[in-house]
Amino acid sequence: MSSADVVIIVQARPDRSLSIEQRHAEVMERMSRFGGPLGFAGLELPPAPDCGGDLSAEYSIKFNIKGLRFIGSYKYRGEKYICEDEAFYDERLRFGFKISNKNIDYKKVLNEQLPKVVEALGGYKAAVSYGFYSLHYSDRPSRETSIYRKLLETPGVDVNGRNNIYILTPAQFWDGELCHRALGYGPDEVITRVKGECVSAERLMDGVYLVLNDDPHLSYEDFVEMNERIKPILGLI
Asked: Of 24, 42, 229, 234, which one has the greatest count of Cβ atoms within 10 A?
C-alpha cells in the first residue's frame, strides 16, 4: 500500500480560562521551537482564528514540504457553551501526508517529531492512522465488531476518546489521566507491560509514548496482529 495516507492527530482538553488568542500564541511559540517536517520553525505563522458564528475555529499553515497537509482547531470559549467530557470538544493538530512522500521520513516522524508536537500542544492523546486500517479493523465482521458497537452504545463511554482506548495505532500518546480512566493503571505500568513487545515505550510529560510499529510498508495483516497481540497485554478488549 505504497500510496497510503498517514494522518496524525494530537488532541488536548481545552483550558477555557485561556482565550483562543492566548492559547494560539502559546501553541505557535512552542511549535516554532523545532523544524520540519512537523515543526513550524522558519515558517510564517498564521494569526489566531476566529469562531465567528461557529462553535470552532480552524487555521492552517503553509509548509515548505509539498504534500504535507495541516489543520489546527480550537473550540468556542463562550461561558454559556457547555463542553462535555468528550473528545468531540478537544483542541486538535492534524497532519496528513502520503506514505510515499520522499520528503518525509516516516520513522523520524514517529520516533522523534511526534513527541515534540504532543509537548507543544500539551496534549492528552495522539494517534497515527495508516490508510483505512483503523476503520477496517473496527468494521470487520467478527467478535470485535460487536464489542465495538456495544461500546459506541454504552452511555458514558467515549470510544477512542477521553476515557477509552479501543484501537492501537502505529504510534500513540496517552497522558496519565487517560491511562487511569481507560486502562485502570498508570503510564509506568503500561511501559512494564509492553516492554519487548514494541519499538519503544517511553515516558512523555506525565504520560507514555508508544511506537508499536514504524514500518512504512505496514500491512493490514500486521496492523491486526499488532492489535490482537498487544491489546490483551494492556487489558484492552
From this structure: 24
Question: What average pLDDT score do residues 96-106 get?
Answer: 97
Element holding 1 (H helix, E strand):
none
- Which positions ≥6 away from 156 have C-beta within 8 Å? 163
Distance CA 22, CA 25 (A): 5
pLDDT confidence tier of residue 141, bands split at 50, 70 and 90:
low
Under a CB-based contact definition with an 8 Å cutoff, are residues 23 and 123 in contact?
Answer: no
Contact present, 211 and 171 (Cβ < 8 Å): yes
The answer to whether 193 touches 234, Cβ cutoff 8 Å, is yes
Which run of H or E residues covers position 201? strand 200-204
Across the range 158-182, mean pLDDT stands at 97
Give me the helix-helix angle, 187-194 and 220-234, nearest 10°. 120
Instruction: List Cα–Cα distances, 223 to 71, 136, 168, 213, in angstroms.
Output: 26, 10, 9, 8
Q: Across all residues in the chain, what is the average pLDDT?
A: 94
Give pTM, 2 decimals: 0.94
CB 165 within 8 A of CB 114: no
DSSP 88: G
Q: How confident is the model at residue 78 (pLDDT cuts 50, 70, 90)?
A: confident
Output DSSP code: residue 186: -
Per DSSP, which regions of 131-174 are E strands? 171-174
- The stretch 3-20 carries a mean pLDDT of 95
